[in-house]
Amino acid sequence: MPSGNEALNPMTEMAQKSSDQEPNAKIRQSGGFEVNMGAEALEFRHITAGLTSKTSGDLTAEPKRPAGLHGPATGPGLLSNHVVTSMYTAWSFAPKFLVKSFSRVANCYFLMICVLQTFPSVSITHGKPTTVVPLMFILTIAAMKEINEDLARHRADDEENNTMTRVLGSDGKYSSEPIPKKWSDVKVGDIVEVRNREPIPADIVLLETSHPEGQCQIMTANLDGETNLKTMVAHKDMVSDSCDKSVMGGYGGEIVCELPNNRLLNFEGTYTRPDGEKVSLGPKNVLLRGVVLRQTEWARGIVAYTGKETKIQMNAAEPPNKVSSVMKLSNDLTKLMFVVDICFCLMAACVNASILGTENAKNSCYLWGNCDYIVAMDPDAANNKIPDSTDSLLIFFTHILIFTNFIPISLLVTIDMVKLGQARMLEFDLDMYHEIKDHSGEIAEIPLSVKRSDLNEELGQVRHIFSDKTGTLTCNIMDFRKCSINGNSYGLGTTAIGLSFLKRNNKPIPAVPPKPADEPDTPNVNFIDPAFSKIMKDPSHPEYKFCCEFFLSLALNHDVLPEENKTGEVVYSASSPDEAALVYAAKHFGFFFKGTENGGKMVIGKKSPDGSEEDVTYEVLNFLEFNSDRKRSSVILKEPGTGKIFLFCKGADNVMKKRMTARQRPDDLMKKTEAHLNQYVDDGLRTLLVGKTYVENSFYETWKKKFAAAENSLQDRDAKRMEVMDLIEKDFQLMGVTAIEDKLQDGVGDALTNFRGANIKVWMLTGDKVDTAINIGYSCSLLDTGMTLLRACGEDNEMDLDHDKVPTEPAIMKKIDELLAVAREGDNEKALVVDTAALSAIMLYSKEMELNEVCKLCKSVICARVTPRQKASIVDMVRYADPNVVTLSIGDGANDVPMIQTAHIGVGIHGLEGRQAVNNSDYAIGQFRFLRKLLLVHGRWNYRRTCKVCLYMFYKNVCYVVPQFLFGLYCMMSGQPIYHDFIYQMYNTMYTATPIVIYGIMDRDVDKNTALKNPWLYFDGQANTFMSRSIFFKWVAEGIVHASVCFFVPVALYQYGIFDGQGYNLDLFTGIGTFTNMLAVIVASGRLYCETGYFNYPHLYIARGGCASVFFEGMVSFTGSGCTWQLISFGLWWAMLKMISDFGTKGIMGTYFFEVGGTFPTLAHDYGLYMVMIWGMAFVVLWSFCLILGQDLFGTQLRANIAMRMKREEEKLQRVEGGGVNVDGMLGDDNNI
């Protein structure tokens, strides 16, 4: 049981969220479907047990409903249980994949290029669509990825659909012996039998089980990730001896229930037995598809929902689409480059038109092939048409083909490969490996898991972290530490949070006596108090009776299940670790919950002070469950012997106090208890108030009828139940307070301190009381004593509240103005604390922007008493108020899922509250401390790598395409290409493909220790240091400069052409084009090398950090992302040149490569080729030195270089005494971001 507003069952909030509507809405959710307010009749599902034909007709009549709060679109009802989650079939793959692939603008662009290449009038490839080859290569890789992923879905579907179950009644026939049947053949209305350790094939309504009381235990790990067992029960009146056994074996009846919806923990319906008796059905009477039957021999039920209409399938929605800010910018830049491409083509067409319009061009007969000497040799040449300005439209499309590579065809596939490699590097990091014990005591191995690699670079730009507390900052392993009973506090010592509080307030730290030798060792109990031990051993002590009654209430008021683990030890399985800790505490002090018996009776083993033990049975009349709206749970019992009816209740203090009348809560007792409660809050303990009341038999009988009527209601059942519960949960006698410790995880303080140093604002969102949250904030270093604490809390009584205890609009505005004024004063850091009342007012009156202004001035923010739905609202508020920041949410429970999915990045923690958070996250880790390295090291590395990959992909294509434009100036922009098309296409797909992928996966500018020691390095991503529109244009400008070098150097060296051994002048492709191509490969590869900061040697790792000597060291690097891959790329260029030279002299390939046929020997022996090569390498060396001297591309001092200089200076200082490093002087103005 959690304290304050924390949810006992994390799934409850999510299940109920779907039914929440505005109070004044004309349409309201009921049972998961929409109904008109005031309507007398609703649409329901009608199921006749065992009669498939009748049920099928009723399903056909169900209304169609579009997708909405109830889940995906449904109706009419589905009879089949066949499930398909795969996307493709053998017949649908081709059309679906092509539609998906060509929904990408880049693929459509290159398809257009292929089409244009087939028109001879504009083609530069003799009508051959050569771009098809690289396009098909890219589509093939994408198709293999899609096929691989979908095959896994097909295998999972086949395995599930072919799983066998047992059917007793179907199609009007009943068999006393269960008949095996595939899951896919099960239909709505079938009567099925499931046996121990078998999964449930569909959503079924329980008829009966092997347990005399109709109980069965299930494990819901496949549904919500929780491995603890839960108890479900068949209604005691479902099967009666009065039922006609000839009708489906006594099971024949009709179910009327809600239409299919996605509310996992809600079900409303009635069952009409064959004898006409009606039975109400609720969520405890339903077994959902996917859960596993445990510790029960068999269970029988009627199938209510099948296939896609089962709860688990209705909740299997696609995760929200998330795109990183870098990729959004990259997509925008791609569109921009398309515009640049069009502009170049228009310029070429205009230049061509202006030249062709001149008399000089018209009289240049040698250009058009109609000179007299040519006509003399070929009379048909006289008919050659002289182009005019109207042909410039064709020139425009020709240049579209020539400038194809302005947009990198391999950009998307390269980034996908890079991110896949980055994801594998993340998962291989042993520093983020964790081990945890599960409920059965076995060790579970938990490495980091990447579920969405598309966001790798987004990890390097986070500004806000929204963190749950329980299980995220804390271990979620509860220990019973203290309690207050009848105004007396018991339990010595303090917690880590309490120690921090005492030190902060200069208070003495109390000594803790050793644990008594005769004290038993009980799981989840860390209670030391010799005085209390004496009380429990002395029945004559005046406090003995109160203490026994207190722990008896803990042993009875719960929904815990006892089970044996593999070692034979009895352990408690609970929906919340708080609940299990309280039951363990009751066992520790002599009240051992052993289980339940027939008739809903609970067996408690009472241990006497003399060591004897007796079993006492309590008849449970009703259990009123906990949820996040009620914030309490109660059990109504009949006292053994006397038959009196009494009620135990425990819950949050703000709820319980209102339910204790002044007559039944003496002021002195309440004051003492509140003092103890505040003391426990200072220790950071999770507290619950415990109360008791006796109920008159006559009142209970009246109440019982009202409660039964509410449970049988098919409209607003939950609201009616809660209203009736309120009638009996009142006039409590205060018994005491429980105090449970949830220890902080290791490394949380260091991580939060680093995040503050990295300019990351951390929000702690918790359901605890304000003071508890503040104390936890201090203990985990979220707050420190030098901070100014700003408070906006409704419980401070500083703001006027309305009747709902929410601050009024003038009050909240006045408070925000006061906070802004204080936040702007002084230079010390600020922290903000707000509670649920203030947040409710801020959202009610749309003051999110004003609150965000306060938050911008604070280093940390604590939100206390918040509900799970408010967590997601807070994240959404920050995203709306500041759209340019990147947010990250981290949590471990199902109640954190909305928050995780709302943020830009969602991180799930493997905890004790199931796997819902992990399953719905983008990244999953074992503990919060791993988030430090994930962001500050891998996040920053991946941000830098991805930015450089995007920029380099555009740069190298500009460097390669611009020579085509420059060459056009020499040939009237006639559309003559400078490169052979095959070599042209290989530039992106082969020559320069591998080095950038290796770079994007492996490169780093600082090592991990430097990144962790200097969290201010993280400013790079927040300030967009590595990629912005201005940086992009600088790279493009650099590409144009380098392209000019690549073109004009060969032109200057070979202005008269290249001659072979027979004195013939080689054509453009093998002359200027080949040399320009080679120089572009050298320069582009060398430019990437200039960006490389990490060179991997067999036994030595060096980061460049501005050191010029490493440039030459890298030239002889044998492995890693240094120049090795660039050298391999250059070797590929030579190999491809020789290959096409050989192809051009023989066979059918000679018709395509005839221009360069047999030219390789000539080129290989031409000294000018090597001069061009040497000149290109010299240019790379020169440019590298320019970059080193400039620190960055255009003079901005890189923080990484500062950090590396600091590291080298610190290494020097280690060898001498004294000295220091002037960090502020090195940072300069870059520290002020």
Automatic annotation (TrEMBL):
The keyword Magnesium applies. The active site is at D468 (4-aspartylphosphate intermediate). It is found in: Endomembrane system; Membrane. It comes from the Eukaryota. One of its GO terms (molecular function) is ATPase-coupled intramembrane lipid transporter activity. ATP binds at D468, K469, T470, E579, F626, K650, R686, T766, G767, D768, R865, K871, N895, D896. Residues 80-126 form the P-type ATPase N-terminal domain. It catalyses: ATP + H2O + phospholipidSide 1 = ADP + phosphate + phospholipidSide 2. Coiled coil: none annotated. Residues 1-25, 54-74 are annotated as: Disordered. Residues 164-240 form the P-type ATPase A domain. It is a multi-pass membrane protein. InterPro entries: ATPase_P-typ_cyto_dom_N, ATPase_P-typ_P_site, ATPase_P-typ_TM_dom_sf, ATPase_P-typ_transduc_dom_A_sf, ATPase_P-type_domA, HAD-like_sf, HAD_sf, P-type_ATPase_IV. Mg(2+) binds at D468, T470, D892, D896. One of its GO terms (cellular component) is plasma membrane. Residues 918-1114 form the P-type ATPase C-terminal domain. The keyword Heme does not apply. The chain crosses the membrane at residues 336-357, 393-415, 949-970, 982-1002, 1035-1056, 1068-1089, 1110-1136, 1167-1189. Belongs to the cation transport ATPase (P-type) (TC 3.A.3) family. Type IV subfamily. This is Phospholipid-transporting ATPase.
